[in-house]
């Protein structure tokens, strides 16, 4: 019990240490999880370049029908491939060179057989026609599917939200983050009086027989599946522009008629400061060709690329709350800042496997504190990121299980953000750290990555090896504890951690003095600071999310 008490005293109420970490019940994986999460040869045999998703939505019937064209290059000879579509939706036919192909289904996977081998290097295409009633999301964005609602005039208001569960919940796709198309055309036909707002730029609006309208949106940049968005409603549009690092960026806003005045006020005070901050820290907005949009949604929000879904009721904070408990989080609109931050981490840089979702969420959580710093100074940003520890559970590893479409603990948000802030502290050079963040977005521009690639880049550019630190914080629920004991007037320290050979610098000082970096290992060694006692030792637990035990 001594460890638990010492930790709580030195690290702060509301945080959980090693002695308090709870292990959740093990997940029972299924064959369907493997089909969804594994990159088998049936998926890697073709490299996607382009989609044309062409659908018609009937909000009254909650019914969708249409097609998706897959354009690809064969990476090897093959006669069979896999795409994905949820089992509750019907595959009406698969056409190849104008003729139907045979297919079979298992869980949410579809296997297509070609009469003749498709040869390596061949550029080819096939089209999937489908129909049905997609899963209706009940708690979007925490579950997935289509969200159906109505505006104050009773007009239908529909949006998609499918991160995690997968885009194949509403349209046919190769549903794996490792393969993104280079560009995409999204055509959505809606009933009279409604509009669709999707990703990219509106190329064309076509009036059809019976009063329906088709909206054609073109995405000029690579896009991951779950970011492909459908937003249908009686939207009003207003626009602006921002002079950014790559020139003029168009800003387009689509909201319900009753909320135009609120939206103009809330968006004007949040969007441009956000863009200025994010470009300063992360580099140019990654999708100038497609513009930046906010689209009012009937759910809280989602990082849909170039068409960010917004549902925070035009309030500051997260639904009016400050997730840091410091007060700083009530000075800006959480959904605008957080979801837009994903344009850099999540959309520009996308993890190849859902297990590495921390690459999206840890960096974007951290972007919140950088935004606070940009507006109110570094001490405010540091207070904010420290305050977010209130949300850490230390319940399970942040990294999920690979090849099973499995994400890790929600600690990837606040714990991951604190891990990145610790990295900044240990690098001890804010400009170098800023260039590392910008360099990540430049080096991995429009790419899918592994978490290991990101860590290796930080190591290389910083000149320090953070491998064991990231392994501890990402792969184990426990945080490391610095154990200090005093022998013959000397302070000895060691790390208690799960990672063999764990080592990490930490800042230590005599009370009121200057902090110095020391680098304990897992064996007791002198801290090397003369005059330390149990009464005057101070460990920097404000910037380091660790436990401390004094013997």
pLDDT under 50 segments (min length 5)?
1-22
Query: What oligomeric state is this?
Result: single chain
Arithmetic mean pLDDT? 95
Q: Outline the biggest β-sheet.
A: 8 strands, mixed
Strand content is 25-35%
Q: Give me the side-by-side strand order of the main sheet.
A: 5-4-8-2-1-11-14-13
- The shape, in one word, is globular
End-to-end Cα distance: 13 Å
Using only CA atoms, what is the Rg?
25 Å
Short recap of the structure:
The protein is α+β, with helices and mostly antiparallel strands. The chain is built from eleven helices and 29 strands.
What does this structure look like?
The chain is an alpha+beta fold and 551 residues long. Helices cover 24% and strands 31% of the residues. The chain has helices at residues 2-11, 31-37, 41-44, 260-282, 334-341, 358-376, 378-387, 414-427, 430-443, 451-462, 467-475; strands spanning 46-58, 63-74, 78-84, 90-96, 99-100, 103-106, 109-118, 123-132, 145-150, 156-161, 183-190, 195-196, 201-207, 213-219, 231-233, 236-244, 247-255, 292-296, 301-302, 308-310, 349-351, 447-449, 481-487, 490-496, 506-510, 516-518, 525-526, 537-539, 547-550. The strands form seven sheets. An eight-stranded mixed sheet has the order 5-4-8-2-1-11-14-13. It has a five-stranded mixed sheet with strand order 16-17-18-20-19, with helices on one face. β16 and β17 (247-255) form a beta hairpin. The relative contact order is 0.10.
């Amino acid at each position: 019990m001594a460890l638990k008490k010492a930790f709580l005293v030195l690290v702060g109420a509301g945080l959980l240490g090693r002695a308090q970490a709870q292990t959740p019940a093990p997940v029972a994986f299924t064959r369907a999880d493997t089909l969804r999460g594994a990159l088998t040869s049936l998926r890697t045999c073709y490299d996607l370049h382009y989609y044309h998703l062409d659908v018609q939505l009937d909000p009254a019937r909650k019914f969708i029908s249409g097609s998706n064209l897959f354009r690809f290059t064969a990476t090897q000879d093959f006669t069979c491939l896999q795409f994905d579509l949820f089992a509750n939706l019907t595959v009406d036919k698969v056409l190849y060179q104008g003729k139907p192909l045979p297919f079979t289904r298992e869980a949410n996977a579809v296997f297509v057989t070609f009469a003749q081998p498709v040869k390596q290097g061949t550029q080819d295409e096939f089209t999937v026609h489908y129909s049905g009633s997609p899963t209706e999301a009940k708690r979007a964005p925490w579950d997935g599917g289509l969200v159906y609602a109505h505006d104050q005039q009773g007009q239908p208001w529909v949006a998609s939200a499918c991160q995690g569960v997968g885009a194949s919940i509403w349209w046919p796709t190769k549903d794996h983050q490792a393969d993104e198309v280079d560009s995409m055309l999204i055509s959505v036909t809606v009933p009279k009086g409604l509009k669709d707002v999707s990703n990219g730029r509106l190329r064309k609006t076509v009036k059809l027989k019976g009063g329906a309208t088709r909206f054609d949106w073109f995405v000029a940049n690579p896009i991951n599946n779950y970011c492909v968005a459908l937003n249908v409603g009686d939207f009003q549009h207003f626009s602006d522009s921002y002079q950014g690092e790559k020139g003029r960026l168009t800003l387009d806003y689509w909201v319900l008629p009753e909320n135009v005045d609120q939206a103009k006020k809330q968006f004007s005070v949040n969007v441009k400061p956000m863009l200025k901050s994010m470009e300063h820290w992360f580099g140019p907005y990654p999708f100038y060709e497609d513009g930046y949009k906010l689209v009012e949604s009937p759910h809280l929000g989602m990082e849909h690329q170039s068409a960010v879904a917004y549902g925070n009721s035009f309030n500051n904070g997260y639904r009016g709350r400050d997730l840091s408990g410091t007060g700083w989080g009530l000075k800006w609109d959480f959904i605008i800042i957080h979801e837009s931050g994903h344009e850099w981490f999540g959309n520009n840089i996308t993890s190849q496997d859902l297990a590495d979702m921390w690459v999206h969420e840890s960096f974007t959580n951290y972007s919140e504190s950088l935004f606070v710093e940009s507006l109110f100074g570094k001490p405010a940003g540091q207070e904010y990121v420290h305050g977010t520890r209130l949300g850490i559970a230390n319940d399970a590893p942040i990294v999920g299980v690979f090849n099973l479409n499995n994400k890790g603990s929600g600690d990837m948000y606040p714990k991951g953000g604190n891990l990145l802030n610790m990295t900044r502290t240990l690098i001890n050079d804010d400009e170098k750290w800023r260039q590392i963040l910008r360099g990540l977005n430049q080096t991995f521009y429009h790419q899918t990555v592994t978490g290991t690639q990101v860590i290796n880049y930080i190591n290389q550019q910083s000149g320090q090896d953070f491998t064991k630190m990231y392994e501890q914080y990402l792969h184990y629920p426990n945080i490391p504890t610095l154990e200090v004991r005093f022998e013959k007037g000397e302070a000895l320290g060691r790390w208690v951690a799960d990672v063999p050979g764990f080592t990490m610098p930490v800042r230590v000082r005599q009370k009121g003095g200057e902090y110095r970096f020391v680098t304990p290992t897992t064996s007791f060694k002198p801290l090397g600071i003369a005059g330390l006692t149990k009464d005057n030792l101070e460990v920097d637990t404000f910037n380091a999310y660790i436990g401390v035990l004094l013997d």
